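Before relying on records like the one below, remember that each one covers exactly one chain. Contacts with other chains, cofactors or solvent are not represented anywhere in the record.
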Amino acid sequence: MAIINTRTVQRIEVFAADSVNQHPRMTVVYTHVFDDTEDADLPVETQKVKHLHKYIMERGSETEVLTDVSGEDPLVQTIAAAVWT
């Protein structure tokens, strides 16, 4: 059987804009659980931390583009839409 990865949001922290960051930013902590019922060494759990800013620099230019959060958890998308309006 194949290894299954289950990703869940553990927590989301929102930081207010300040003198360095002109827009609120977010830190998202995801928990990943890798499991396979046929593997005695699984499940294995790990965490991934993502730092999200409203804008990112476009590669190869000086242009800022809106951060694409469409691949993030729906809760992250909802909070990003609320704090980045």
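The chain has a mean pLDDT of 93.
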